[in-house]
Amino acid sequence: MKILIYGVGGVGGYFGGKLAKAGYEVTMIARGKHLEAIRKDGLEIESIDETFTIHPKLATDDLSEVETPDLVILGVKSWQIPQVASEIKSVIGDKTMVLPLQNGADNAEKLLEILPKKNVLAGLCFIISYIEKPGKIKHAAYEPRITFGEIDNVKTERVQEVHQVFENAGISNSIAENIQLEIWKKFLFICTVSGIGGLTRVSIDKIRESDYLYDLMQKTAREMIAVANAKGIPLSEEHFQKTFEIINAQPEGTTASTQRDIMQGKPSELENFNGYIVKEGEKLGIETPANKLIYECLKPMENQARNTSK
């Protein structure tokens, strides 16, 4: 199987590295000094389980050099998906599968606005990893896992094939019974902690210590569940309770990647997190005051970050 990894950050770099290590034909789209280092010395993966270096078949920033892949794994941020989808149209074929692994609730929908339905899968992943330096990915915590499936949840032959590829590469993975529910379960957690983390600029354990902020997180999550339910996603009280069990179990010093982007003045996934809930709430006639407060307070910083990065 020919695999294209678009975006060789913590997610794309780790999973792409594991696939290349297993002998699959992996092409990586990277940029700048990271790309230079991969071309020169390969991509090093320092994991909690093992450390290894791989040399992809091709590392490039030019899609015109890329052969038509069987599978594309998107390792970019959710707000980058529309641009990336437009770019990869030139290399995908009738049978190419495009698998998004970003945080966010509507990544597959964004792809469907640009790519044919036959090319799009839906997915998510669990991993804590990042670029430690050009040419090196650090997997710092959490046993990596991918959950994915067809948008209509049919267990097709092609998703079974992808499952086997991940198995062969030693990547823990599962084909979801309801991929939309699985995406929203993760979204419920990550959106609840990310925006408020960006506002307070402290770790999750510090946020938990404030009764006011803990209540605000709960209101944020309740609004997300209301929006999800209106969209036909069966998030429940059980999922709410489980989300806060996870929040309460986060070790000292834990922050979310979107929070870190906000704190570093980088473009973040704010629009795809709290902003998405606010806008979907408006469409569906659901009040989302907690999410709107967080979104509107962070939006000026987000606008500034995007103007600066142009």
Automatic annotation (TrEMBL):
Entry's EC annotation: 1.1.1.169
Cellular component, GO annotation: cytoplasm
High-level lineage: Bacteria, Pseudomonadati, Bacteroidota, Flavobacteriia, Flavobacteriales
Gene Ontology BP, a term: pantothenate biosynthetic process
Domain of life of the organism encoding this protein: Bacteria
Organism: Christiangramia flava JLT2011
Family label: Belongs to the ketopantoate reductase family.
Name listed for the protein in its UniProt record: 2-dehydropantoate 2-reductase
Top enzyme category: oxidoreductase
Catalysed reaction, written as an equation: (R)-pantoate + NADP(+) = 2-dehydropantoate + NADPH + H(+)
Keywords, comma-separated and alphabetical: NADP, Oxidoreductase, Pantothenate biosynthesis
Pathway(s) it belongs to: Cofactor biosynthesis; (R)-pantothenate biosynthesis; (R)-pantoate from 3-methyl-2-oxobutanoate: step 2/2
InterPro entries, per database record: 6-PGluconate_DH-like_C_sf, 6PGD_dom2, ApbA, KPA_reductase, KPR-Related, KPR_N, NAD(P)-bd_dom_sf
One MF term in the entry's GO annotations: 2-dehydropantoate 2-reductase activity
Function: Catalyzes the NADPH-dependent reduction of ketopantoate into pantoic acid.
Pfam families: ApbA, ApbA_C
